[in-house]
Description:
mainly alpha, globular
Amino acid sequence: MSEVINNLETVVLNQVSPEIMESEPQFVEPIVSSIVYILTAPFDLKDAYEHATYDYTNDEFEVETVKVMNERLQQIMNTLETTPSSKLGKFIIKLYMNSLSEIASTSESWKHLYNEVHKVFASLDNKF
């Protein structure tokens, strides 16, 4: 799992602009770690859905994964005492969605999961 986490961390860090890395370094590491935590949901759920084997086209697994990812995002927002409409909240969501989009470009399964997560945000009238 540590290799997965390292790979996810690299993907997320690559989505952070150099300007933000320089101007807000104290925020970058905890936010990156938080995004990685969200993105590990499918791997954390693997044991409960052994038959899924990371195939996010499995409806039951996909629904549960999106639910857990959204719960984790909400936990992060609560911990940081922010909202999706705040500047920090928008940054977190944009970083999360850009990272998920980057991962989706490498795998059809992740692309399907990205589309489901994106639908959730679209239904909330967010434009990401």
